Amino acid sequence: MSESFVAGTQYGDLKGTISLDGFSSPPLYDFAALTDMPVGYWPVGISFYTLHITDGTIPFRIVAVQSSVVGHKTEDVEVYASEHNDEIPVYSFYGKINPHHLEGLFKRIDLNAILKGLDGYSIKVHELE
Predict the structure, then answer these.
(1) Global pTM?
(2) Which of 80, 107, 81 is nearest to 26 (CA)?
(3) What is the pLDDT of residues 71-86, one digit of tens each?
């Protein structure tokens, strides 16, 4: 079974975008080290799929490409995608992280969400004068 790697919740009350900055590069390998991802896979994305913290950790999912199939760098994956209807096959690997460790992995986090009924409109933020 396959699914699109797109954010979604049961009701999707709020929808939006997210942008994350690592310090010197994306910290995907740091997250991958907390999963059972085997050798031969290259992490290309992350998902925080719940905030139901029951054991003091935040569950996450790393998605990774199989290097022997799509390549070992971004340019290789782009070529693969262009030759396969812009589709990139990824595989899921699950882990958990202590919330206090997130601060050491990201220097900036920007998450924006708006009511789902307003999704798709151009939202312009104005400051009161």
Answers:
(1) 0.82
(2) 107
(3) 999 999 999 999 999 9
